[in-house]
């Protein structure tokens, strides 16, 4: 004889309870929004510095950026490749770590480096027409004396944005 331990009238209530528990668990985790899925890794050069960075070259990957990350390795970062060179701006909504961003033109020439504070809605913009933005841990650029005028060497294949 078959005994059904979950009568059909209880299933909708159990599903509702499960959904509520999953929602509460997501809120308790402190996750305030989307987290970037795996992105392609590329190597870029700035002078003698070799960096392995994540490539954000789609609308969605650029929108999510480094949101909700709790840490970023010392020589790791995210390179944003935009569709065209124009005044690009960044902000730190849902970003948990302080970052610096270097804006660069089509040739990779750094236009300016901006300090960005975690969780703020301050807008940080390029001082010119930028095609690239490289986000690194706070003070990464200043510790290495990297600034305006220096070149970020990016593989040609990475310059395609979608």
From TrEMBL:
Keywords: Signal
Position of the signal peptide: 1-28
PANTHER family in the cross-refs: UPF0127 PROTEIN MJ1496
Protein name: DUF192 domain-containing protein
Organism, as annotated: Limnobacter thiooxidans
The organism's taxonomic lineage, starting at the top: Bacteria, Pseudomonadati, Pseudomonadota, Betaproteobacteria, Burkholderiales
